[in-house]
From TrEMBL:
Coiled-coil region: none
PANTHER family: NADH DEHYDROGENASE, NADH DEHYDROGENASE-LIKE PROTEIN RV1812C
Family: Belongs to the NADH dehydrogenase family.
Keywords: FAD, Flavoprotein, NAD, Oxidoreductase
Protein name: NAD(P)/FAD-dependent oxidoreductase
Record flagged with keyword NAD: yes
All copies of domain FAD/NAD(P)-binding, residue ranges: 5-330
One Gene Ontology molecular-function label: NADH dehydrogenase activity
Source species taxonomy: Bacteria, Bacillati, Actinomycetota, Actinomycetes, Kitasatosporales
InterPro entries, per the entry: FAD/NAD-bd_sf (IPR036188), FAD/NAD-binding_dom (IPR023753), NDH-2 (IPR045024)
Amino acid sequence: MAPPRILVVGAGFAGVECVRRLERRLAPGEAQITLVTPFSYQLYLPLLPQVASGVLTPQSVAVSLRRSRRHRTRIVPGGAIGVDTRAKVCVIRKITDEIVNEPYDYIVLAAGSVTRTFDIPGLLDNARGMKTLAEAAYVRDHVIAQLDLADASHDEAERASRLQFVVVGGGYAGTETAACLQRLTTSAVRHYPRLDARLIKWHLIDIAPKLMPELGDKLGQAALEVLRKRNIEVSLGVSIAEAGPEQVTFTDGRVLPCRTLIWTAGVAASPLIATLGAETVRGRLAVTPQLNLPGVDGVFSLGDAAAVPDLAKGDGAVCPPTAQHAMRQGRVLADNLIASLRHQPLRDYVHKDLGLVVDLGGKDAVSKPLGVELRGLPAQAVARGYHWSALRTNVAKTRVMTNWMLNAVAGDDFVRTGFQSRKPATLRDFEYTDVYLTPEQIREHTAATVIKH
């Protein structure tokens, strides 16, 4: 009899932690493990702003999945675009664009999230995100290119538009992105004698009335003071009304000449979740505290893709889409999946949030570990210590620590690779949110598939 087939979709914090635990705790031959992911690495997403600013190299935050000595998982290079839970088949589009059906006995949906967008004219065509490694590398090239082009231009209006930068989203990603990239341009402009540093202006806007409200009023205000001290213009209660290639219109009526719009206004669960036709909570799959889909055999979900009940908070709360929850959910889910294979009882996921860290670059940071409010160097030490310890391999830890030390000693560099320099890339080009199938298309693809148990 063939061993059960376990299919894990997604190689983020949740998916990789689940696979690692399955590899450690399942006996050889007890199950077949398959991982679906476009790239054979785990991306340490919280450090992307530092990749965009050049503090870290891209490979230092991309941890290879093939380095493990225990590696026995089959990796399918592609993305899941539909799931037929009745036929127990996942439809996969490989990176070659070939569409294949992958049967399973158990499926783990750790598909993560995508950048949340709204129906704003020009947004998808003119904004850049900060959700993938390619986006971070592209944004860095793009920002440095604006300095190069402004320096080479004799048109004052063109210069002004190239030296204005807008970041939308006052959460952790947006705040860290604006802070880190502002440090980059401030350091770089010293090497452009024809540019007036006063013309470079960064704008951080958010429709919310407070910056990072999860930090509390004191730390949120402290972060706001750091940004404004650096001459980053923070506008709260404001969003984008229209995004053009050379200007941005705010909802308060301001029109800003600008050729760089970075969109970090939250995330939404992967569109894959909608293909299941199951109950969702704000787009995330509604699962039990044991991380399985009620009433559906063999389906588990976790991380950003799932609305996991937060039993530590209670009152119907769901776990926030953070790395600390995703990693711990991955371990619990693996244990529960193994328990299902062995006909043992499942356990609930319970985790009390450890706190929040926000790295603003240089000596600036705000952190709230275990409820203790920190700012400045102590907060920076906690923030970087937390990120460093969360990296999965010693190789990754060594690379990141070396990058931090080199940047502290030698300062920033302003080399751009020319990545997609001839083709302006947008949100559409990195996250492929238009490739998912409808339920009818999924049934067509799976109709001919014979599931063998």
